[in-house]
């Protein structure tokens, strides 16, 4: 009998801790950048037929790069699920609830997050996002009847969910409308090129590449060229209201990454750099007084290059060359 009682007590404690827990511990997910990108790579290899609406089951841990309809059905209680959504740089993610059969009062939830969260780190960082952090979460159980669609501010979004009862299910339709003024972006691929323009807006934008890459800046044009004499006495770009910084790090949040280089003078012609971190970010800081523009290309570092810069580097956070 004692054993049974202990089991019951354990069960109660378990239920309590589960009910008490919010999405917080899900954000601490054990997904590593490598894990994330093997998910992403397998997702991008799928051939998506264009003609009809694509549909497939949603998994408890999932990566979705396609438009379509995604259905989750619980085959057992799932307390900590996360689906990552990604689109092209000039698109946003639109999540629409088609049908939802979950038990909100029993502790189930579906939360859309405006961005990505990995191990507690967010992209875009709170500093660079126009929406306050708490408003970046939209919980179906709080707002479902009012907001049947949720739209992200950039090309990535996430859905956290928890479902206790076997057979509970929900279906989401994901669309990717065009974003005419993309600001924060996560690259889908380890190589590509991008031109970031901030047209006289007081905002900061980050382009994140979650692979070790060589980055080649082809052009940097900051509107202040003629009326902002760079004071040679100032170290780095201190004092410049408009500049570009290259950041390297092993987490998602650009505000927690390390500066690799600051660029606050105009130039044409390539400046290149190899950054052997899990995440490389090009971040543009814009005062709003000028039109700022940076064009760059990037490609994945191969294993030999990674080895070489690792050996030559004195940095210990991650290595650059
Ligand atoms: C942009 O970033 C800079 C430096 O990181 C900061 O001083 C400034 O307040 C930020 N601007 C906005 C609009 O967040």
Automatic annotation (TrEMBL):
Localization per record: Secreted
Signal peptide, first to last residue: 1-23
UniProt superkingdom: Eukaryota
Residues annotated as domain Corticotropin-releasing factor binding protein N-terminal: 53-176
Single GO BP term: hormone-mediated signaling pathway
Disulfide cross-links: 60-81, 104-141, 183-205, 237-264, 277-318
GO cellular component: a single term: extracellular space
Tagged with keyword Signal: yes
Family: Belongs to the CRF-binding protein family.
PANTHER family in the cross-refs: CORTICOTROPIN-RELEASING FACTOR-BINDING PROTEIN (PTHR10278:SF0)
Protein name as catalogued: Corticotropin-releasing factor-binding protein
Organism: Salmo trutta
């Amino acid at each position: 009998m004692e054993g049974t009682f202990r089991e019951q007590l354990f069960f109660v404690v378990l239920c309590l801790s589960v009910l008490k827990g919010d999405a917080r511990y899900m954000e601490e997910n054990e997904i590593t950048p490598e894990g994330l990108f093997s998910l992403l790579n397998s997702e991008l290899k799928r051939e998506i037929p264009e003609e009809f609406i694509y549909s497939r089951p949603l998994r408890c841990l999932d990566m979705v790069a396609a438009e379509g309809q995604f259905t989750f059905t619980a085959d057992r209680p799932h307390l900590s699920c996360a689906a990552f959504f990604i689109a092209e740089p000039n698109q946003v993610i639109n999540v629409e609830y088609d049908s939802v059969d979950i038990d909100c009062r029993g502790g189930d939830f579906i939360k859309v997050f405006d961005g990505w969260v990995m191990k507690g780190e967010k992209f875009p960082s709170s500093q660079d996002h126009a929406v306050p952090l708490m408003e970046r979460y939209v919980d179906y159980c709080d707002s479902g009847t009012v907001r049947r669609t949720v739209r992200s501010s950039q090309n990535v979004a996430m859905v956290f969910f928890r479902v206790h009862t076997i057979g509970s299910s929900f279906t989401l339709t994901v669309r990717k409308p065009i974003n005419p003024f993309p600001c924060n972006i996560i690259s889908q691929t380890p190589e590509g090129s991008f031109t970031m323009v901030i047209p006289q807006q007081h905002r900061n934008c980050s382009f994140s590449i979650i692979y070790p890459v060589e980055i080649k800046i082809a052009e940097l044009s900051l509107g202040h060229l003629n009326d902002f004499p760079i004071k040679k006495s100032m170290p780095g770009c201190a004092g410049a209201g408009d500049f570009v910084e290259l950041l390297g790090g092993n987490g998602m949040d650009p505000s927690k990454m390390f500066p690799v280089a600051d660029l606050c003078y105009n130039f044409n012609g390539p400046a290149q750099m190899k950054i052997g971190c899990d995440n490389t970010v090009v971040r543009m800081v814009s005062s709003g007084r000028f039109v700022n523009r940076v064009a760059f290309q990037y490609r994945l570092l191969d294993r030999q290059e990674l080895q070489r810069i690792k050996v030559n580097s004195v940095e210990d956070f991650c290595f650059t060359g």
